[in-house]
Amino acid sequence: MTEPELDIKTRILLAAKKLFAQQGYDGTSVRQICDEAGANVSLVSYHFGGKEKVFEALFEHFFPDHMMNELAEESMSSPVEGIRRIIGEVVKFTMTDREMSDIVQLEITLRTHRTDTVFRFLDPVWTKVRELLQEGKEQGVFQIESVSYAMLQVMGVALAHKRAKNSRFSFDYQDMNTDELAEQTIEFVLRGLGVNSNERNH
Questions:
Q1: Which residues lie closer than 8 Å to 133 by C-beta, 6 or more apart?
Q2: How many CB atoms lie within 10 A of CB 132?
Q3: In this predicted model, what pLDDT tens digit does every residue of 108-145 receive, in sequence order?
Q4: Can you tell me whether residue 83 is helix, strand or coil?
Q5: Low-confidence ranges of the chain (pLDDT < 70)
Q6: Exposed site from 78, 96, 161, 192, fewest CB < 10 Å?
């Protein structure tokens, strides 16, 4: 594959990511994507095989799948360390690639047939979180009665800034420091799980 082909494919993907995040998959036409990318409309079919394949390619190219799968499959030193690392990465991803995280949120809300593609990338991460919560509960590290309820709370806190963005309260993303938000979210989650201060600081 030549460099110009790689370049036009990337431009199409970046254009699709921007437009899907702004106006949704169904509200975006192939022509709009190509206009945004400065590409001939036939190139979407040529390079990807259609708009739906472009959607799948976005996750393959921009979702941090390799890193997330490594975290999901990795043998963590402790449940606390595992939760710390995964929650930190979730917050950082949703803050640094807001277009992709907006697409994820929109597709989950709409529950289209594309949601299966989204969950194929999300499931390994949240499955690992559930396993870590169960492990921590059994070890007495997490002071929780129900793993299922704790899972809901952890997910809610980790993604709270996404929901707050569209609330009537004023949150200026430009003023938010991603690393600070990640650290404070981790601290809040660990406190909620009943982790003592010594464990939280290691």
A1: 79, 83, 142, 144, 147, 150, 151, 154, 193
A2: 25
A3: 888 888 999 999 888 888 898 999 999 999 999 999 99
A4: helix
A5: 1-6, 65-69, 71-76, 163-175, 198-202
A6: 96
Burial class (CB in 10 A: 0-12, 13-18, 19+), 42: exposed
Phi-psi label, residue 49: left if phi above 0, alpha if psi -120 to 50, beta otherwise? left
Percent of the chain with pLDDT over 90: 56
Which tokens is 8 given?
A: 């036009």
Residue 91's contacts (CB-CB under 8 Å, 6 or more residues apart) are 158, 161, 178, 181, 182, 185, 186
Assign a CATH topology to domain 63-193. Tetracycline Repressor; domain 2 (1.10.357)
The pTM for the full model equals: 0.80
Q: Which fold has domain 3-58?
A: Arc Repressor Mutant, subunit A (1.10.10)
